Amino acid sequence: MTLLFRPRLSSLQLAGLLHSPPPSLCSAAPFGRLSPKSQILKPPILHSSSSNHALFATRTSNPGPTSDSARFVRKVLFVPPGLEPEEVTDDMVLPGSNIVIGPYAGDAKIKEVQFVKSSNRPKDCPRDDRPEFAMLGRSNVGKSSLINALVRKKEVALTSKKPGKTQLINHFLVNGSWYLVDLPGYGFANASEAVRMDWSSFTKGYFLNRETLVSVLLLVDASVPPQKIDLDCANWLGRNNIPMTFVFTKCDKMKGGKTKRPDENIRDLLELIRENFPQHPPWIMSSSVTGLGRDELLLHMSQLRNYWDS
Length: 310
Ligand SMILES: Nc1nc2c(ncn2[C@@H]2O[C@H](COP(=O)(O)OP(=O)(O)OP(=O)(O)O)[C@@H](O)[C@H]2O)c(=O)[nH]1
Ligand SMILES: [Mg+2]
Hints:
By secondary structure, the protein is of the alpha/beta class. 27% of the residues lie in helices and 14% in strands. It has 7 helices and 7 strands. A 7-stranded mixed sheet has the order 1-3-4-2-5-6-7, with helices on both faces. A hairpin with a 3-residue loop joins strand 3 (169-174) and strand 4. The chain is globular. The two termini are 24 Å apart. Bound molecules: guanosine-5'-triphosphate and magnesium ion. Magnesium ion binds next to helix 3.
């Protein structure tokens, strides 16, 4: 079972507050007959820039209650708290993602960002009850670049062409009310065994003990084929009930020749994810170079945050 989003209260307490049980408590629907909603599975569309396209896709008809469509929607889309799969229409799905925007979304603007501290042990992280999102992914996948893109500042988080740049847990406070957390990457081939072991205990400790962690943003490089280490990481998060959103990075990289396109690599990875997850975790395409997915990801984070806060 995977927790797709994390409330401040336990899921069971919330089940009573919401009109329906949270999706993690719903039985997984079989991947049945494709319905009109199958349009949602069309290959993700690459946008050159996020600034000039509407946030929502075009509207199509609502499939109606208790249909195969509703079961299909529940299986492949991330339906946030406060919405029933039957209520989902295409215009609620963020482009380049499987994320449905629900009633908790809002307040997605970033007005200010402030570096707070670097910690080399999870227990040195700020003692605070403000919610946070942590960037996780292989070295060089673009974690620090994504933070800079989200806050629209060039070097708030330090980036490098060489893997292994970020070595500590870095907390950035956004709008004085929530944190973005930059983490060291995993899978850095040149790192010594000792450094790799250290990475694993250090970051695992953070994920397992950080009560204010709303969701991990698990960054996956869409310009390369699926990597086992990313799947292992997703499975580990899933097994430990740590909510995650897949953020596919470097979607601007279109290589020529026989190399697969980012949308093809994403499809391949999602196929593999489906083997271990009864429901697709939320996923979104991004590029820190073009700004693709920036506004959409912030909107998604706002609904997770507002739900957690509520
Ligand atoms: N084309 C392209 N390059 C990117 C993108 N995001 C990051 N990069 C480049 O990828 C390299 C690594 O970026 P970082 O943000 O430092 O990666 P990181 O995941 O923080 O790496 P570590 O700190 O080593 O774990 C840099 O050269 C970035 O310019 C992207 O969306 N598109
Ligand atoms: Mg970094």
